[in-house]
Amino acid sequence: MTNTATELRPLCVIARDIKRNWPEPNYAAIPYLNAMFSLRSIQDNFYADTGQSVVLYFLTNATHWRGEEAKRLKAELRSMLKANGYPIK
């Protein structure tokens, strides 16, 4: 499967890749990573939280995760936010 500008991977798939590449995540990022396993898009909800807020909180708590895969996966999450109207720098 190749991604196009309009085709976004499900959050649960991205979460799987994050878990594979970040085996010991920051304790504060874990609840948001776990929540992403239950979401397909940032338009879904995880209990009272929106998928968008789950992704934003994950990114906030993943600032110390480094490396090429970290950059790629975080960029994918940011582009997902941007594609859904959230203003990301």
Describe the structure.
The structure is a single chain. The chain has helices at 11-21, 30-36, 51-61, 68-83; strands spanning 45-46, 49-50. The protein has 89 residues and is mainly alpha-helical. It has one domain (11-83). A hairpin with a 2-residue loop joins β1 and β2. Strands 1-2 form a two-stranded antiparallel sheet. The longest helix has 16 residues, at 68-83. α1 (11-21) packs antiparallel against α4 (68-83), α2 packs antiparallel against α3 (51-61) and α3 (51-61) runs antiparallel to α4 (68-83).
What key phrases describe this protein's structure?
89 residues; mainly alpha; 4% strand
Helix content: 40-55%
- Gyration radius, in Å: 12 Å
**SS-based class:** mainly alpha
Q: What is the H-and-E element order?
A: HHEEHH
The figure for the number of domains is 1
Cα distance, first to last residue?
28 Å
Question: What can be said about the biggest beta sheet?
Answer: 2 strands, antiparallel
Low-confidence parts lasting 5 or more residues at pLDDT below 50?
1-5
Order of strands across the biggest sheet? 1-2
The shape is globular
| Beta-strand residue fraction | under 5%
Helix tally equals: 4
Mean pLDDT: 91
Number of strands: 2
